[in-house]
Design brief:
Elements (H helix, E strand, L loop, with lengths): L1 E4 L2 E4 L9 E4 L18 E4 L2 E7 L5 E6 L7 E4 L15 E6 L2 E6 L5 E5 L7 E5 L5 E4 L2 E6 L2 E5 L6 E5 L10 E6 L2 E7 L7 E6 L7 E4 L10 E6 L2 E8 L4 E7 L6 E5 L12 E6 L2 E8 L3 E7 L7 E2 L11 E9 L2 E6 L7 E5 L7 E4 L11 E6 L2 E8 L3 E7 L7 E2 L13 E6 L2 E7 L5 E7 L18 E2 L4 E3 L4 E2 L4 E6 L3 E3 L4 E2 L4 E6 L5
Parallel strand pairs: 39-42, 40-43, 41-44, 42-45
Antiparallel strand pairs: 1-2, 3-38, 4-5, 5-6, 6-7, 8-9, 9-10, 10-11, 12-13, 13-14, 14-15, 16-17, 17-18, 18-19, 20-21, 21-22, 22-23, 24-25, 25-26, 26-27, 28-29, 29-30, 30-31, 32-33, 33-34, 34-35, 36-37, 37-38
């Protein structure tokens, strides 16, 4: 239906809009139920139900679940009941879905491993826990306990130590990594001195062995373990081979070899980090004397391990793969060229194809894109502007479609969204709408809704609003301008709204996403 009015026209058009919504105010007031800091895994998808940790202000930080509704967001179990009023809650974290359970770490005493099926009775302690990570081979969880490697199938009877590598001390297994069904990890086998090397395990004591002694003069301190090209790739330190280098292993001593040496600046010896596989190559961050911190790539050969591009030729910090994400034929990451601040970049794997994708905060200011997570056909991330602070953004790989979703924290306050976890077409995440009031939010991604923005100032270009809008006398359309104003439910033209000569004003009702 179209109604012609003097100086402007109104019409309705069925489109859609994505709007983040608060799932539940779990901790009433301004304190917040979710962790404001820390980026360890805080949420998991268990067969279509979100499992997470939250603090309701009564029992402390405990185990919760949600189906996306306020009524369906409930406490699963008070793991640490009747505890000290100043240290309430078991503070569950390190969530990982393995089979029909979510395994997680919590603290009712000194630190324990738990698993849950989403019910109170099905949430049980399996053992104590002393590590900072949980990984899986099939339906078996591997983790560190009492300084050694343990495993669990989710039952108390099926939870046991794999091997006591250092009977008189701790081997402190870490960087637990699945490569084609074999567990690789870093461990120390000397009770008196640090001697960290690469180990592997098939889940038995006899099959848990050191792969190779890489640094005979001390610890090689491997880090950044990742599965690539059906092998284990990692970074390790060896003074005889130029300090920090990239290594690969087929699981044998002879097949554990140096790929590329000298991937560090001797003045600070920062290890390479954040490996990610993209388009048949391994990408990572390295700090070298000649180029500073930049992105490198490797095909698994010495000659094929090269600097991708010196993005910031005049500065120390260029690009990095920390929290990078793959979408389609590109790898997206944060970088600065020394001119535009830290912004969203992307690469197709070539130097010429490594470019600034979106300058979100124009000029030399930085939008600091972070928490990049590919979900479906988009990347969701956190970015900051002067007007809105750190808010939720999305991109589908088109620069013009890289936009902020509706402001969660009003004005320049930051909602600082993170922990993006997809469950049946809904993205759950933590965000704050006011100060430290960090709660559980969600975003429906099944509606194919375009983003919306709150209107500001005079209407001089196409603008979008949230669920509804009432215009005021500050909304003035200048002469000879065609403007489309979009809102979720209705547009109410209050007294004082006016257009100037030869102006066409149209409103589109964005129905379907309130």
């Amino acid at each position: 239906m179209k109604k012609i009015l003097p100086a402007f026209c109104l019409f309705a058009q069925i489109t859609f809009a994505q709007t983040p919504t608060l799932v539940k105010d779990i901790y009433n007031g301004t304190v917040g139920s979710l962790s404001y800091y820390g980026e360890t895994s805080r949420m998991a998808n268990l067969n279509g139900t979100l499992i997470f940790g939250a603090n309701d202000g009564t029992v402390g930080a405990e185990l919760w679940k949600s189906n996306g509704t306020s009524a369906g967001t409930v406490l699963v179990k008070d793991i640490k009941p009747n505890d000290n009023q100043y240290f309430k809650g078991s503070d569950p974290t390190l969530f990982i879905t393995i089979g029909n359970y979510v395994f997680f770490a919590a603290y009712s005493g000194l630190g324990e491993l738990y698993r849950t099926d989403g019910t109170t009775a099905g949430t049980i302690q399996l053992s104590t826990f002393s590590g900072s990570e949980i990984t899986n081979i099939g339906t078996t969880a591997y983790y560190a306990n009492n300084g050694e490697l343990w495993k669990s199938n989710g039952t108390i009877g099926g939870t046991s130590q794999v091997k006591d590598i250092v009977p008189s001390g701790d081997s402190s297994p870490r960087n637990l990594t699945n490569v084609n069904g074999t567990l690789y990890f870093v461990a120390n086998d000397d009770a008196d001195v640090l001697n960290e090397e690469i180990w592997k395990s098939n889940g038995t004591s006899g099959g848990t062995v050191k792969v190779k002694e890489l640094n005979t003069n001390g610890s090689s301190s491997p880090t950044g373990l990742i599965s690539f090209d059906n092998k284990l790739y990692f970074f390790a330190f060896n003074n005889d081979n130029g300090g920090w280098g990239l290594y690969k292993s087929d699981g044998t001593s002879a097949g554990t070899v140096l790929v590329k040496s000298g991937l560090y600046d001797p003045s600070n010896a920062i290890a390479p980090s954040d490996p990610i596989v993209f388009n048949g190559a391994l990408y990572f961050t390295a700090n070298t004397a000649g180029n500073g911190v930049e992105i490198w790539k490797s095909d698994g050969t010495n000659a094929g391990t090269v600097l991708l591009k010196d993005i910031n030729v005049s500065g120390f910090q260029g690009g990095g793969t920390h929290e990078a994400a793959v979408l389609g034929s590109y790898l997206y990451f944060s970088a600065t060229d020394g001119i535009n601040g830290i912004e969203l970049w992307r690469t197709d794997g070539t130097a010429n194809g490594t470019v600034l994708f979106k300058d979100i905060r124009a000029g030399n200011g930085s939008s600091d894109p972070a928490k990049l997570k590919t979900i479906g056909t988009k990347i969701y991330f956190q970015a900051s502007t002067a007007a809105n602070g750190a808010e939720l953004w999305q991109t589908d790989g088109i620069a013009d479609n890289t936009v902020q979703l509706p402001d969660i924290a009003s004005g320049s306050m930051a909602s600082i969204p993170a922990y993006f976890t997809e469950v049946n077409g809904t993205i759950f995440f933590r965000a704050t709408s006011y100060g430290f009031d960090v709660e559980l939010w969600k975003l429906d991604i099944n509606s194919n809704c375009p983003p919306t923005l709150a209107p500001t100032g005079n209407i001089t270009t196409n603008q979008k609003a949230n669920s509804s809008v009432s215009t005021t006398g500050t909304n003035i359309i200048p002469t000879s301008v065609n403007v489309t104003y979009q809102a979720g439910k209705y547009v109410q033209l209050n007294p004082g709204f006016r257009t100037q000569g030869n102006t066409v004003f149209q409103t589109k009702i964005l129905a379907g996403c309130n």
